[in-house]
Amino acid sequence: MLLLIALAIRVTWGQLQPAELSPDLPDQMEYRALASHLIVGDGLQFFDERFHGTEYAFRAPGYPMFMAMMGTLPRTVRLGQALLDTSTVLAIYLLARRWLDERAALVAAGLVAFNPFLIFFTGVMLSETLFTAAIAWGISLLGRKSWTGALCLAVAVLVRPAAMFLPPLLGAVAALLPGREGATDRPVRDVMGGLFLGAAASFVVLLPWAFRNHRVIDQWIWTTTNAGQTTYDGFHNGATGKSDLSILSQMPELLSMSETGRNRYLGQLGYGAMCSDPARSLSLAVTKVGRTWSPVPLSDEYGSIRNQLVGLIYAGPLFLLALVGLFRRNLSWPLKSLCLLPAIYFTAGVMMTVGSLRYRIPAEPPMCLLAAGALCRKSEGRMMNAE
């Protein structure tokens, strides 16, 4: 019943959105253009009007491939994302049910089902929904069969290559979970095996992407050519912690550069600004973390009183319960680490780029297990004995 309700909410929300894409989220236009070129057989490319040139590796291939499979019509993509996000509810339920009692597992799933931020992103053509689902299923499956969890996390890496180090870290932590299939009496060996499996998954999915980039733009780009731009966005002289790329229009030298040249040039400027004033960079990092973990939306487009109230009503109790669950003793530290690791990883990422609420979204579903653990009376040991 909970899954049906979650699906109904997401489908309804998606179908209520305008048929045309919102200009407030220009990334949608790029993803749609990439998917359209994939459908007609032109490969992963789109024309960037800012630089009057074609971009070939500016976005990772995972989400455009998903959009191409669903078609480029927004309503069709939103329907697919509604199904994906509902599966995230199921993934967290299955994970929580293994360690908590039935009631607490339903609480964890309910927190995911009624997450207003997850619901919102099913209605826009951005990679959050696919990325979050892949992370949730990867974590859920890592505790049972490592290779299936690594496969799901590999999908996440293909959506956002910056997550390439997350699979080995999660694999290493998951190797310490009690009752995991294939576990031995040698924890160090298990940890190294999980680390290797996660690293291999990242390498296997990124190698064809890097090789394709070498063939197309003559560079071994393992992530994207958006990396330099993002770094510059986070540390240029006018940086405030949020994304504002309007400054690029004041840099005419970018027009004469290639895609890889711009990536390298902007990356060097960004790292130069970061290293030249460490105190300012540290202050910006704190601001970015605050923006990312703010319980309410802070953007000009979506920071209305209504949206802030909805965000506060949901995120405030979630963060408080997750904090309580973190310090309770009914869950083992490997399980707590598994649930918190995405939050730590993505927080470190925004400190090096820009801060936004959307970048914490994939970390919230695993945190719901910690929140449910705060309400669970049964200990992890009793649940394991019962099984």
Layout of helices and strands, plus pairs?
Elements: H1 2-16, H2 27-40, E1 46-48, E2 53-55, H3 62-70, H4 74-99, H5 102-113, H6 116-121, H7 128-142, H8 146-159, H9 166-174, H10 187-217, H11 227-235, H12 259-276, H13 278-292, H14 305-327, H15 333-351, H16 364-373, H17 380-386
Antiparallel strand pairs: 1-2
Helix pairs in contact: 1-4, 1-5, 2-3, 4-5, 4-7, 4-16, 5-16, 7-8, 8-9, 8-10, 9-10, 9-15, 11-12, 13-15, 14-16, 15-16
Please describe what this structure looks like.
The chain is mostly helical. It contains 17 helices and 2 strands. It has helices at residues 2-16, 27-40, 62-70, 74-99, 102-113, 116-121, 128-142, 146-159, 166-174, 187-217, 227-235, 259-276, 278-292, 305-327, 333-351, 364-373, 380-386, and strands spanning 46-48, 53-55. A two-stranded antiparallel ribbon has the order 1-2. A hairpin with a 4-residue loop joins strand 1 (46-48) and strand 2. The longest helix is centred in the middle third of the chain and has 31 residues, at 187-217.
Strand content: under 5%
How is the biggest beta sheet arranged? 2 strands, antiparallel
Radius of gyration: 21 Å
In whole angstroms, the N-to-C terminal distance is 25 Å
Mean pLDDT: 91
Percent helix: 55-70%
What order do the strands of the largest sheet run in, or round the barrel if closed? 1-2
Helix-strand topology string: HHEEHHHHHHHHHHHHHHH
SSE class: mainly alpha
Any idea how many domains? 1
H/I helix tally: 17
Coarse morphology: globular
Q: Which regions have little confidence, pLDDT < 50, spanning 5+ residues?
A: 381-387
